[in-house]
Amino acid sequence: MKRSILYLIIILFTCCKTTKPEIVGIYSYKNSNYNVLKINADHTFQYEKLDIHQFFNPSDTSRRANYDCSHTATSGVWYKNYDNKLILNNCDNDTTDVFRYWRLSKNLNNNNNEIKVSFKNLIGETIGISGVSHNDNWIGISFHKTYRDFSVEVGKYDNLVFDFGAYFYKPLVLDLKDSSAADYTITLAPHFLSGYFKNEIVTLHGKNIICRDSVFNKVRIKK
């Protein structure tokens, strides 16, 4: 009896150890950078969804309404049940909608008087900057092309508004009042939806995840 229990514990431990790394990763619907499910090792997840047809709906002339209704995000926690399925639940206290980004990383640079800002999406690819403004005045960048990053002297502006043109993300206001010389990398997030997933069951199928009848393929992240 003791030996059987020991074998069971070993099997359960092995299964947990081998299946969790296989689950963790980023999954994309039809290779889209904007329809993404990210499963994290700490049992949290992030989800983004873009309805491209709704975004360009000609009957709605409100740019803000198009952003908030068509490009949305949510986050929460997941666990794996006994039937090779994941259960997703939202965290009601998520504040992503307030800050408009998933993550902000800061690395000190060698230039003691410069702030450099760049943006990424949930997959980790660069989001081009199409415009930067301060108090409704455009500075340094035109809409004719996009830039991978933007640099500014420390203390020159108390805040900047970054516009992302055709990248489907709303303009972001970045507070620079107490900023020091550093490289800032910001992972953008769209409009946050609370209560989107409540005990949502998603199916694991090989290296894919099936969520609400949509197949998300696991993305191989470039190093």
The overall pLDDT, averaged over residues, is 79
Radius of gyration using CA atoms only = 21 Å
Major sheet, described briefly?
A: 8 strands, antiparallel, barrel
Number of helices: 4
In CATH, what is the class of the largest domain? Mainly Beta
- Percent helix, as a range, is 10-25%
Oligomer: single chain
Strand content: 35-45%
Class based on secondary structure composition and strand pairing: alpha+beta
Number of strands: 18
Examine the coordinates and then state which fold CATH places here, giving the name of the CATH topology of the largest domain.
Lipocalin
Structural shape: elongated
Unreliable stretches covering 5 or more consecutive residues: 1-19
CATH architecture of the largest domain: Beta Barrel
- Count of discrete structural domains: 2
